[in-house]
Specification:
Layout: E1 6-11, E2 14-19, H1 30-45, E3 51-56, E4 61-63, H2 68-71, H3 80-89, E5 106-110, E6 113-115, H4 117-122, E7 127-131, E8 135-137, H5 151-159, H6 161-170, E9 174-175, H7 176-181, E10 187-189, H8 194-206, H9 210-223, H10 228-244, H11 248-258
Helix pairs in contact: 5-6, 9-10
């Protein structure tokens, strides 16, 4: 697929995905939504792509959310059964937001406004690096629009119940400093430096053996909402499956025993 609203770039094992509608504050249109589904699956299925960095074009806006002007042109919804089928099958209305099958690391370089679906997009990442001019908020409150792309699911996991409820209910916008204090952001950097720092971090992660990273991320994601015992079983299952496959987990343990520096396989994980 040739992208009209995205820039997909790969440098060795690091992919940078740029939301590229700067004149619309990188808001997510129906066209971008379609392209995002393809881009995320492309990254997921590429054996040579280890880490994804997501960002917005320019240095003032990560993403302002759903393009309401584009959305206002939608036709009336069809019948209820048709809508339910669409809802079940759709990866998300504002990108790949309803799927949890990407176990490779994802870093968000938040370079400005991350509002509404833009905040939900940032929440897709495992690590968020924010420029000092970044702002966050569920600003869809003012238009009576619900958080339909993970806001009510991921935000409480990231910042805790009380903070999430405050932000969701009030729609208050917060700056990068407050976002870092409440755990929404992992690191704050000078304006214009978020992408550079995120890509640096991505390269460092890409140099590590990938098998254990992906296994541990899968364990965390699959464990959400499960009992303590179930989560421990999932972790054990994933750990033992790596040993049984004799992949990089076993190679690492054997190399440690022999005092060697292992050569890490990254494919077919």
């Amino acid at each position: 697929m040739d992208y009209e609203t995205l820039i997909y770039e790969q440098d060795e094992h690091v992919v940078t995905l740029t939301y590229n509608r700067p004149d619309q504050h990188n808001a997510i249109s129906r066209k971008m939504n379609e392209e995002l589904h393809h881009a995320w699956q492309r990254f997921r299925d590429d054996d040579d792509a280890f880490v994804l960095v997501i960002t917005g074009a320019g240095d003032t806006t990560f993403s302002a959310g759903w393009d309401l002007q584009d959305a206002s042109e939608l036709d009336e919804l069809g019948d209820w059964d048709e809508f339910r089928v669409h809802l079940f099958n759709s990866p998300g209305e504002c990108g790949y937001t309803r799927r949890v099958d990407v176990f490779k690391p994802v870093i968000a370089a938040v370079n400005g406004y991350a509002f509404a679906a833009g905040l939900e997009t940032a929440l897709l990442a495992d690590i968020r690096v924010a420029a000092e001019n970044a702002e966050f908020g569920a600003l869809e409150r003012r238009w009576n629009i619900v958080g339909g792309d993970g806001m009510t699911v991921r935000l409480p996991l990231v910042v805790g119940f009380a903070r999430a409820m405050e932000l969701i209910i009030t729609g208050r916008r917060i700056d990068a400093g407050e976002a870092e204090r409440i755990g929404l952001v992992n690191e704050v950097v000078p304006r214009g430096k978020a992408l550079e720092r995120a890509q640096q971090l991505a390269r460092e992660i890409a140099a590590l053996p990938q098998g254990a990273i992906r296994s541990d991320k899968e364990s965390v994601i699959r464990g959400v909402g499960r009992t303590y015992e179930e989560r421990l079983r999932i972790e054990a299952e994933l750990t033992m499956s790596m040993f049984m496959r004799r992949d990089s987990h076993t190679i690492g343990a054997g190399a440690f025993k022999r005092g060697e520096r292992p050569e890490w396989p990254h494919h077919g994980l």
